[in-house]
Structure formats: structure tokens, C-alpha cells
Design goal:
Oligomer: single chain
Number of strands: 22
CATH architecture of the largest domain: 3-Layer(bba) Sandwich
Number of helices: 12
Number of domains: 3
Helix content: 25-40%
CATH superfamily of the largest domain: FAD/NAD(P)-binding domain
Distance between the termini: 77 Å
Radius of gyration: 24 Å
CATH class of the largest domain: Alpha Beta
Largest sheet: 7 strands, mixed
């Protein structure tokens, strides 16, 4: 006999969790199926929260080793272990898991640990590790929020000792001295920066001719300079030919590139792409066909080709952010049950890269506006001229604002530097309200603050406008 629910959700990461809670709060009977032993998904357990926590530890170490204060002596052990850095990470993750479990329990959401598989369009079997069926759930509405997993090419010898992916890199059995990072996307860059700041010799290998081609090129130029100043080696247009583990005590990993270069390091992080977790769900049997990467296609309401089956989060691809996954989950439930709330799609999203230094942006880039033939005026606020930046020791950052040359309305904001991921939300608010450079310049900001960069950037843009006239 199937257990009947109004909503069955496959996956309890950010998207699935928010969908479940909203449905339960409106009186729906909700079940969540989670294949991992814990809820929270990659964001809490293996990705977003753990990596950003480790990043803070890396910044702490870097500050003590490179930004010493006169008359104050500090000492960091030469034998720092992985466990030393992971202690704080485990505390943060455990706290997040406690909060999630408490919210699920408070809203009387049933959580089943196992793998969900569609038996038909409304029935899902929950199977255990051995493949046995534990129970069958019937859902009037079903939400697929199963997320993604790192891509695993067959010729890459992942072993959890020398060769890792982004889900296993934080389980390093020992603190290495050197690391090779294959893949210079967001995840690869973030980890390359973290381990460089921790004192490792890191080489970042980019398959493309330039880093992060969708970012504003001036910002990327500054980021690359800062990464190299941190001590990182960066190579472009490089592809691996072979990867092998070389025996030793401890063993190392050897990578031969197609250009003929041979690189060796204590560990290798392979970070090229992620695939949707849709294999084994039985989707093809009910008329839902994932693409070649395992991702699902949805409409503006997050419905799949089966109207009562929704998909949200990383499993539907771009933008694959925790923030957007949460809202997608809520929007799917609002549509399924015709609930009041935000319905308009948020087209302009803030993005953040937790590199060292941070990069964050929203709206258009200078290059995208040039392609559209838009005449723009650029205003810049330099950390080097900001007293708060001087106080915290960051002179390399910059805020860049892009304005329409005629109306002087803000079109895009880009930040590189300390707390860029926080500062961008000021630009988000200005962008959403259609603010002009005059409005931004005439707004008052606490002093000294990094936020005051907005006034300086806007004033510079207004000065350029006057010179044009």
C-alpha cells in the first residue's frame, strides 16, 4: 500500500527543503526523500558552507603570515593538520543541520532516507542501499530537487588519497604541500585560492584562453593579478593527456598535458563540470528525458513535461545557486497550489565568487553593453583610496559601476575585494529601482565604510558626463 501525500520531494538540499516547508505551512502533507544520510544537500555538507568556512580559516592563516603587526608576534605550527582546519567547518555544518532538521520536524514533514525511483507518474519507490524497496509514496505533486554531482571521466583515477573532486577535497587524509587544480570554473578557482592562502604550492590549469569569460574583463584582470600575487601559478589553454598516481611515501599524482608538459603534485583536484543526479530515478519511463548532462528542462513555472512534476535547483542547470534554488522551490509550490506570493521572475541576479579576493557582480558587463551598441559611462571606486579599505589592509579592490551615457541610469555593478559579496546588494537595490548616478552620489553612507565606494564611483561617472558635454 502506498503512503499518500500531497507533495513528495526528491532531494533535501536548499530547493527541496524550501519547497517542503512552504507546502507544509499551507497545510499540505509532505514527504521528503533524501538519498544521503543527512539533509542539506551539497550546499550544507560538501560545498557552499564547508568551503566558505575553510576559506575563512585560510584568510586567518594568510593574515597572520603576511600581514603582521609591528610589536605583535604570532606563531602558526608548521604541522597544521587537515583536522585543525576542519574543526570549525564541522561546527558550522552541524549547526546548519540542526536548524534544518528542526524546521522539518516543526512543520511535520516526513523524511525518508533512501533513493527515490518513479514507478509511474504519481508513485515513487524508496529503496535502501541494497536496492530493496522500503516503501512506496504517492504524491499528487512531485518535486525533483536531486542536485548535481562532480563529473567523473573514466580516465581520471579518483581515489580519495591523491585525486579528488569538489565533493571529496575536504576529506584530505593529510595536509599536502602542493596541489594541481584542473578546471578554472568558480569551484576550481575558489579552492585554488583557499589552498594557496593556506601555504600550498598551487597550479591552476584552465582549459580556456582566459578566466571566467562571462565576467567583466577588467575585474577578471585584477582577479588574476591578485591570485598570482597570492602565489598561485595559472596556465591557460591546457588539457590533460593522462593522470596517474605515482607510488611513494606519500604517493604523488602526475599529470601529462596535451602540450607535453608534465606536472607533479601531492594531490590533484578535478573540477570540470557537474552532472545532474537523475540517473536511476526512472524519469525516462514516465516521459521525462534528461539531457546529455543529466539536467532537466522546465518551463517558467518549473514544470517538467509532466505538469504535476516540478524540478528545481542545480538539477535544472544555470544559475545553480543556493539562493536561486531556494526561490525556485518556493515558486514551484506556489504554482502547484495557486498560492499568493512573488510570481514575477527575477531576471537580474547577484553572483558571487568566493575567491581571494572575492568577486561579485550584478547586471551588465562593459563587454555585453558594447556588443549591444550601448554607449556607457564607467565610474570606479578604488579600495586604495578608501579609508576603510586601508584600515583592513585591502588596497587592491575596486567597485565598477556602468551607467547609460544618456540617462545615467545604472546598468551593472561589479566588485572585487573584501566583502564584495555583501557590497553587491547595494548595487542590486539601486539597479532594481532604476537609480541614476546622481541618486547614488547623493545617498549618504557611513564613514569610514566600503559602501562609500558607491558615492565615489558615481561621482566619477558624473564628472565624465560633464566633460563629455
Amino acid at each position: 500500500m502506498a503512503i499518500k501525500y500531497d507533495v513528495v520531494i526528491l532531494g533535501c538540499g536548499p530547493g527541496g527543503e524550501r519547497a517542503a516547508i512552504l507546502a507544509a505551512r499551507t497545510g499540505k502533507k509532505v514527504a521528503v526523500v533524501e538519498r544521503a544520510g543527512v539533509v542539506g544537500g551539497t550546499a550544507v555538507n560538501w560545498g557552499t558552507i564547508p568551503s566558505k568556512t575553510l576559506r575563512e580559516s585560510a584568510l586567518f592563516v594568510y593574515a597572520h603570515t603576511h600581514q603582521k603587526l609591528h610589536g605583535i608576534k604570532t606563531e602558526i605550527s608548521d604541522e597544521i593538520t587537515v583536522a585543525d582546519f576542519m574543526h570549525r567547518e564541522r561546527q558550522v555544518v552541524q549547526r546548519e543541520l540542526e536548524l534544518i532538521n528542526r524546521a522539518l520536524a516543526r512543520n511535520e514533514i516526513d523524511v525518508f532516507h533512501g533513493t527515490g525511483r518513479f514507478l509511474d507518474k504519481h508513485h515513487v519507490a524508496v529503496t535502501g542501499a541494497g536496492g530493496q524497496t522500503r516503501m512506496v509514496l504517492r504524491g499528487e505533486t512531485i518535486v525533483v530537487a536531486t542536485g548535481t554531482s562532480p563529473n567523473h571521466p573514466k580516465d581520471v583515477p579518483f581515489d580519495g588519497e591523491c585525486v579528488f573532486d569538489s565533493d571529496t577535497i575536504l576529506n584530505l587524509p593529510r595536509m599536502p604541500r602542493s596541489m594541481l587544480v584542473l578546471g578554472a570554473g568558480v569551484i576550481g578557482i575558489e579552492y585554488a585560492c583557499i589552498f594557496t592562502a593556506l601555504g600550498l604550492d598551487v597550479t591552476l590549469m584552465d582549459t580556456r584562453s582566459r578566466l571566467l569569460p562571462y565576467l567583466d574583463r577588467e575585474i577578471v584582470g585584477r582577479l588574476q593579478r591578485e591570485m598570482r600575487r597570492l602565489g598561485m601559478m595559472i596556465s591557460h589553454d591546457e588539457f590533460y593527456e593522462s593522470i596517474e598516481k605515482v607510488a611513494g611515501s606519500p604517493p604523488v599524482v602526475r599529470c601529462r598535458t596535451k602540450s607535453g608538459t608534465v606536472l607533479e603534485a601531492d594531490v590533484l583536484l578535478y573540477s570540470v563540470g557537474r552532472d545532474g543526479n537523475t540517473a536511476g530515478l526512472g524519469l525516462e519511463e514516465i516521459g521525462i528525458q534528461p539531457d546529455e548532462r543529466g539536467l532537466l528542462e522546465v518551463n517558467n513555472h518549473y514544470q517538467t513535461s509532466q505538469p504535476h512534476i516540478y524540478a528545481v535547483g542545480d538539477v535544472i542547470g544555470h544559475p545553480a545557486l543556493a539562493s536561486t534554488s531556494m526561490e525556485q522551490g518556493r515558486r514551484a509550490i506556489r504554482h502547484a497550489f495557486d498560492l499568493p506570493g512573488l510570481q514575477k521572475q527575477t531576471e537580474v541576479l547577484p553572483f558571487a565568487i568566493y575567491s581571494i579576493p572575492e568577486v561579485s557582480y550584478i547586471g551588465e558587463t562593459e563587454e555585453s553593453l558594447a556588443e549591444k551598441g550601448r554607449d556607457v559611462i564607467v565610474g570606479r571606486g578604488l579600495y586604495a583610496l578608501n579609508p576603510r579599505a586601508q584600515i583592513i589592509g585591502d588596497a587592491g579592490g575596486m567597485l565598477k559601476l556602468l551607467f547609460d551615457a544618456e540617462s545615467m541610469r545604472l546598468l551593472g555593478a561589479h566588485v572585487i575585494g573584501t566583502t564584495a559579496s555583501e557590497l553587491i546588494h547595494i548595487g542590486q537595490a539601486f539597479l532594481a529601482t532604476g537609480a541614476t548616478a546622481t541618486v547614488i552620489a547623493e545617498s549618504l553612507y557611513n564613514y569610514p565604510t566600503l559602501s562609500d565606494l558607491y558615492r565615489h564611483a558615481a561621482m566619477e561617472a558624473l564628472g565624465q558626463k560633464l566633460r563629455r558635454e
